[in-house]
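Form P-L/3: holo structure prediction, ligand iron/sulfur cluster.
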Amino acid sequence: MDLLFFLILFPFIAAIVLLIIKSDNVRGAVVGVSALLIAAVSVWLLAAYATSGTVFFPVSPEPMGEMMFLIGMGIALFILYMGVRYKNYIAIALTIIQSALMVYFEFGISHGVVPENNFFVDQFTIIMALIIGVIGSLICVYAVSYMKDFHKHHPELKDRRRTFFFIMFIFLTAMFGLVFANNLAWLFFFWEITTLSSFLLIGYTQTDEAMKNSFLALNMNLLGGLAFAGALIWLASTGGGMELDKLIATGGIIALVPAVLISFAGITKSAQFPFSSWLVGAMIAPTPVSALLHSSTMVKAGVYVMVRFAPVLQGTTPGYMIALVGGFTFLLASAIAISQSNAKKVLAYSTIANLGLIVACAGIGTYEAIWAAILLIVFHAVSKSLLFLCVGTVEHQIGSRDIEDMNGLITRMPKVAVMMLIGMAGMFLAPFGMLISKWAAIRAFIDAPYGVIFVVILAFGSALTVFFWAKWMGRLISVPPPAEDAERRVSPTEWLVLSFLAGLMVLTTVLFPLISSYLVEPWLLTIYGHVTLLAQENVVIMLIMLFLLMVLPISMLYYRKDHRQVKPYMGGMTTTSRMHFTGSIGIDREVTLGNYYLESYFGEQKMSKIGIPLCVVLLAIMFAGVAVAGLMH
Amino acid sequence: MTYLSKSPWLLHYNASSCNGCDIEILACLTPMYDVERFGIINTGNPKHADIFVVTGSINEENKDVLVNLYEQIPDPKVVVAIGICAASGGVFRECYNVMGGIDKLIPVDVYVPGCAARPESIIDGIVKSLGILEEKRTAMVKGIPVKPEMNTAVREAGTE
Amino acid sequence: MSIIYALLFLLLAPVAGGLIAGIDRRITARMQGRVGPPILQAFYDLGKLFEKEKVVVTNSQNFYVLCYLVFIALSGALFFGGGDILLVIFAFTLAHVFLVLGAYASNSPYSHVGAERELIQLMACEPIIILAAVGMYMVTKSFYVADIAASNIPLIVFLPGLFAGFLYILTMKLRKSPFDLSTSHHAHQELVKGVTTEFSGPTLGCIEIAHWYEAIFLLGFVYLFFSWSPVIAVIAIIIIYVFEILIDNTFARVKWPLALKSSWLVTAVLGILNLAALYIIGGFLK
Ligand code: SF4
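OUTPUT (holo model):
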């Protein structure tokens, strides 16, 4: 109980402190200490509750509920103010409707419902809390030195770092609240705070583009919020109750309607087609924001609730539609990632794609699918945060986030490049985490009814994934002409965070059988009542592969000796050590190599043109399905 | 006897040949002569080659290319000069732009004369070069430097 | 038992692979009206490569090739050891990614383009391989190669579409024309030697061995389709291999867009139809 309150309230207190502090050094110290505490307590939470199953915490809804309502209204007023100031009428309209719904909910219908068990902890919550507590706070630590550099590189921007760290920590509070909440109205409150934080952080630089993108994100998420509010009203008016656990245990149409509405909210938050554009636009924000909100944590809130509702969705038409939205998003976003050369955009699309896979698993909702979904959440959080932070560091040192400019990073920034390679390997190669999850997903899909469609999607999608990651890896490791060492200037904090995350990446792969058998499987056992075990010999083979990957680099020591070095073959042309050669009529030319982007096949526009209408139709069928079921009820 | 002589891979470079010798080299690959019987493959890549087969003489434009290709071939390697152009400049020897045979730049192991050289003599020359290849390999294993100094004097002179 | 098979694969596959390569070259020569090299030529070539000097563009390229060899051998050993076929496929992909990285590492124009094309081929091949594994699972209810091989069901009858799709990409995997885009066994091609351009001597030898492992693994995969009767399976493998050689000698190389599009089309049409049919049949049987 205390641990829960600590995790929810402490980041909030830290946020207030950070809002006041002006000095860089003190801020750094406060962030560092708070992050350490949050991470430590999250681990403590694991130790305390790992084996105790689901534990409920009855909290009196009286003062808290009212407070949340008031804060919620305050947020609405703030958004209205921003909407008026930036003349964004959609935001105004959505906020007004949503506030009206919430007022109706609060005063009109919610009084009959008095939920008791407002907070809870189970194994899935613990996993989420660890992701937020460990990865989230690491990213905050990283942000300290990153933001210092950021303002050095962009002197034209106003230094609003106090607000920045305030929101970052508020966001941690909201995420903890979101995963601990058993009361859906409370969950919604925290949900809206994450929307607001993301809006504010995307607009951090306050440039026109940033404001435009932040409003895009806001509007899409508000639309999802609207659906969420609708779910609350349905629950209050049909007497479904506000408690998540009871609702899921009840199942049936009472639970299906809110499950679908909330899943719609989840689809907006985790940026599935047709709402993917906000996440791509959000890449305008400083990199720690992208890492924290848009890759490892906030977008996970969307899939978190969907996984929670998965047992309700299992085997229903709306559930299939959700799964199809996820599946097609996975396929198309992976394809788009091929055509991008902006590193952050590639990461954004890969995030969207992987979330799509999780959504597909949640929509299918069978035991194996959820197993895969949870592991996807874990592994994705680790590798994506590592990749984002690496890209951030690289961008500050070489002044570009274009993949083509990262040519030969292995010689210029060897350590960062190796970490990036680990992160990328984590995203698509055996024996690392994501691949284990994909593998599990294939198995889950085959056994599910109509699962063949998803298997096909996955087969094509993972082929696309291999292409765009491998060619990026290729850029990093190609050994170009000597260039200056750009790694010296990376700050020690950044090193610390990066190495920690890289270590975590390998560690999760080694420990995944334990994560699975001590956290995921017991949780699934309580939800589904049965459990299938991971084949032991496959785990062993995975570990052998990991071991080989760690041992084989030793061979580099051997290859260092007695090998004659020559220049690459250039059709007989003599090149200088910097790969210049004399072209026709004596002009000095430089050899430059570029990757294939296959624009004409996998261009952003082209794919969106397919994805958006398709997913709109699927969502329409989903709503129609649930409306029919609701009416029959 | 090592495997080298059982699997000689060629790199064929046309320095400034009139194409007469090149056609004869290609004739060796045809069913009529089929040099693949001896494991000979015509690779287009110096990194994979063992025998450097050159036709034509050197001039200002191609001298760097010739040396570059030669240097990119891993040891042990042999050079076979095909045709009288490659040997000495041949009928073009007196031309203002011709610097002479390829041995002015790189060490040549076998000269196959003729204008154009006949396929039979080309095959003969290559088979002859295999013996030299073996010798070089033995020397390489024993650690004796076999690489004759390249004719840098001419190279420098040519550059001026 | 399974470990013995895996070890046998590790020991014998290079021998068998080299022999097949030799026979392949001999048949190719005969098809072109030539005599061709000795059957053991592939081994002579390999021996030669290990006698050459070690030349590199960058030291790291050898490391990637070593990883390629190790993981190809591992995936083959897992396959013949009767392991999980999906895991085998993933290890196989990992191996190829290493080859591609090795080609990228040298920063050479020819191997760079070769690497890009190799990746495109990887992308073209991956879906049907996964779908074939899934199809085998749907029929035999197991992902383990040992179980699939031991089943008495003639898989080819149930999986004709997937088998045809697999044959299509087999041409790519064996680096045969018209799909020898990234590198080829033939002497001349427009990319010099594609991915292998910058590798020489012993390193190239390692790639050669890896190719042999790969060929045996792929033929093993073909075997699974016929595994209910080993005799038919062996005959089928021989026919298919000769057929591949024939294709190799009768087609000109295509451009990569055609390779990608056509193989995906084949996968999508044949693969999906086949799986859908299986699904429906499965529904009836229930
Ligand atoms: S030797 Fe005669 S045939 Fe050969 S290249 Fe010279 S001129 Fe042409």
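COMMENT: DSSP finds five helices and seven strands in chain B.
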